[in-house]
Write a structure and sequence with these properties.
It is built from 16 helices and twelve strands. Helix content is 44%, strand content 13%. Bound molecules: 1,3-dihydroxyacetonephosphate and iron/sulfur cluster.
Length: 358
C-alpha cells in the first residue's frame, strides 16, 4: 500500500516554489564577533542552545561550550524538556523545534530560521496522512519524529530512529499490526528487523536516499578493512552492507567503540564534525552518493540543516524572531504519542547520550 498519487511530487513541488538558502559563512573576524554575541545573549536571555549533529560545526561548538547539547533528535527533545532555561533555541529543522514546544509549552522555543524543514515532513501532509490512517483502522499508527505536529497528533506513537525498532518490536510482540509513516526506507528496515506486519507511507529523505549500494560495494573493495556505518533512512542496498545501522548518536558511539581505524559513513556529512572530535585519528570516508548508478551528484548534506548559521542564530536571540508556535489543541494530542516514546525509552533505560549529558 502506498500513499495517494497526489502526494508523490510534494517535496519536488516545494523545492521549485521555495528555493532554500544555506546560511552565509562569515569572515573569521565576524565569526569571532558573532560567537561572542551569541554566548552573551544565551546568558542574558536565560536560553539554552540545542543543536543537531548535522548543523554547522560552529553551532555545535557553541552548544557544547555554553552548557547546551549536541545530539540526535530523541536526545534533543529530552534535553530541551529537562533543561531549566526558559528559552530553548533549537538549531536543526522545524519538526525538532515543534517537538521542543510540544514537550515544553510554557517555554519560548526559537529557531535560527523557521524555513528549515525536512523532505519527510513536506511529503506527509496531515490531511492526506489522516485519510491513509482512516483506510486502516485496525492498525496502530506509528510515525517518525520527522513529521508535523498535526501528523504526530494523528498517531498513536512517535518514534525516532534510535528507538523505532524497539517500539515496533514491542507492538508486534503484542500482536499489533502497524501503519508506518513517512519514511519508506526506515519503515522497510524496521519491518525486516522485527517481522511486523506494516503498511508504509511513501516518503523519503532527499539526503539519505542518494547513497548508492553499487558504489558502496566498490568503495568497500578499495577499503576492505573499513567498517560501514549507515543511518536507516538510507535505501536497503546500502543498509544491507552496514556493520552498524543506527541513529546519529548510535553511529557516533560506533565510531568510538568499534575496533577499527577506518569507517565508511552513510549519513549527512555534518556528523563528521563530532565524529572527528570524538574519534580523533580515525579515518572517516563519506559513503558514495554519485557514480555510475547515480542520477545526479548529491553533496550528502541536508539543505535545511544548512540554513542554520551564526548570523541568523545571533539575530533570533537578539530579536526573539522565529519563535515556534504550535496550536495548543494539536499539541495536546501530539504530546500523548510523544510521551509514549519518552516513557518507553525511560523504561528501557536507553543510553541515548548527547554531548550535554557529560
Ligand atoms: P536522528 O534522530 O538520527 O538524529 O535523525 C534525524 C534526522 O533527521 C536524520 O536525517
Ligand atoms: Fe529531513 Fe533528511 Fe534533512 Fe534529516 S537529513 S532533516 S530526514 S531531509
Amino acid at each position: 500500500m502506498s500513499k495517494p498519487e497526489s502526494v508523490t511530487d510534494t517535496p519536488i513541488r516545494y523545492f521549485r516554489e521555495q528555493p532554500f538558502q544555506a546560511a552565509d559563512v562569515p569572515s573569521p573576524a565576524e565569526r569571532e564577533e558573532l560567537m561572542a554575541r551569541i554566548r552573551e545573549q544565551l546568558k542574558a536571555r536565560d536560553a539554552v542552545l540545542v543543536a543537531h549533529y548535522y548543523t554547522d560545526g560552529d553551532l555545535q561548538i557553541l552548544a557544547d561550550e555554553t552548557g547546551g547539547c549536541v545530539s540526535d533528535s530523541l536526545e534533543m527533545a529530552r534535553f530541551g524538556y529537562e533543561h531549566p532555561a526558559s528559552t530553548v533555541v533549537v538549531a536543526g529543522v522545524r519538526f525538532m523545534g515543534e517537538t521542543a514546544k510540544i514537550l515544553s509549552p510554557e517555554k519560548r522555543v526559537l529557531m535560527p530560521t523557521l524555513e528549515a524543514t525536512c523532505s519527510l515532513d513536506i511529503g506527509c501532509p496531515a490531511d492526506e496522512f489522516s485519510d491513509f490512517c482512516d483506510q486502516h483502522p485496525d492498525r496502530v499508527v506509528v510515525v517518525y519524529a520527522n513529521t508535523s505536529a498535526a501528523v504526530k497528533a494523528r498517531a498513536d506513537w512517535v518514534v525516532t530512529s534510535s528507538i523505532a525498532v524497539d517500539v515496533v518490536r514491542h507492538l508486534h510482540d503484542q500482536g499489533e499490526k502497524i501503519l508506518w509513516g513517512p519514511d519508506k526506507y526506515l519503515g522497510d528496515y524496521i519491518r525486516r528487523e522485527t517481522g511486523a506486519d506494516m503498511v508504509l507511507w511513501d516518503g523519503s529523505c532527499i539526503v539519505h536516499e542518494e547513497f548508492k549500494g553499487v558504489e558502496l560495494e566498490r568503495l568497500r573493495e578499495e577499503y576492505p578493512q573499513a567498517r560501514v556505518l549507515v543511518h536507516p533512512e538510507s535505501p536497503a542496498a546500502v543498509v544491507d552492507q552496514a556493520d552498524v545501522v543506527g541513529s546519529t548518536s548510535q553511529l557516533l558511539k560506533a565510531v568510538q567503540t568499534l575496533d577499527a581505524d577506518t569507517f565508511i559513513v552513510a549519513t549527512d556529512k555534518g556528523i563528521f564534525h563530532k565524529m572527528h572530535e570524538l574519534a580523533p585519528g580515525k579515518t572517516l570516508l563519506e559513503a558514495p552518493t554519485a557514480g555510475r548508478s547515480a542520477t545526479c551528484t548529491s553533496c550528502a548534506h541536508c539543505p535545511w540543516m544548512a540554513m542554520n548559521g551564526l548570523r541568523n542564530l545571533a539575530h533570533v536571540l537578539e530579536t526573539g524572531d522565529q519563535e515556534i508556535h504550535v496550536d495548543p489543541a494539536v499539541a495536546e494530542k501530539a504530546l500523548v504519542s510523544l510521551n509514549r516514546m519518552l516513557a518507553f525509552g525511560q523504561q528501557q533505560k536507553r543510553p541515548v547520550l548527547g554531548t550535554g549529558d557529560a
